[in-house]
Amino acid sequence: MIPAPVRFLDPLQLLDGADSHRPTRETTMNYLLIPVGAIARLLPHLPNFTPIGGMALFGAAHGSRRSALIAPLAAMALSDLFLGAHGSLPFVYASFVLIALMGMRVFRNGVTAPRVVGASLASSLILFSLSNFGVWATGTMYAPTFQGLLTCYAMALPFLRNTMLGDLFYAGVFFGGYALATRHAGIGALVPVKVQRHDD
């Protein structure tokens, strides 16, 4: 007998699962947002007022799980080629992974305006908490003590406002634009929008 060929499982298939049967329009749109996110980070803007959090949430609600994770990270990586890297960058990337995973949970039963607002604010807090923990843990600006960590968070508070405004603004643009476009095209409604996402 000829042994059956060994097949290696793509780990990202575990994320997509039954999502591979979803229409590819939304997934493609998630990937098309990559240059939008990268360019927005490169153009002059208020500190922390960027679309990456909104991208992660939008991808979590529409398209595949794979695109929800890849698109924001790809936009970050592309723009970081020009902006440069720093020691706490892995914590920033991890923040957007957590934001996307949180979004998958929040929008599991549909997209509504209150959920978009709540998820946007939660996203800002996730990024604030994890990225500034990374600044404290990997840098030399603050003492490696609990008091040093609290000082790090206190010094970063002025930037939290811009992060929240940016997440709310771009989530509103992405979700609102999509809802208006689908309504105009006759293929969807504004809110609530039921998300047909299957568990693995």
Along the chain, the helix and strand elements come as HHHHHHH
In helices, the fraction of residues equals 55-70%
Tell me the structural class.
Answer: mainly alpha
Question: What is the count of DSSP helices, taking H or I runs of 4+ residues?
Answer: 7
Radius of gyration: 19 Å
Report the mean per-residue pLDDT as an integer.
85
Strand content: under 5%
Instruction: Give the N-terminus to C-terminus distance in angstroms.
Output: 34 Å
| Shape assignment | globular
Strand count, sense and barrel status of the largest sheet are: none
**How many DSSP-defined strands?**
0
Detail the poorly predicted runs. 4-23, 188-193
Helices and strands in order:
Layout: H1 11-16, H2 24-42, H3 52-61, H4 65-83, H5 89-106, H6 113-138, H7 146-185
Helix pairs in contact: 2-3, 2-4, 3-4, 3-5, 3-7, 4-5, 5-6, 6-7
Report on this structure.
The protein has helices at residues 11-16, 24-42, 52-61, 65-83, 89-106, 113-138, 146-185. With 200 residues, it is an all-alpha fold. Helix 5 runs antiparallel to helix 6.
Attribute tags:
200 residues; mainly alpha; 7 helices
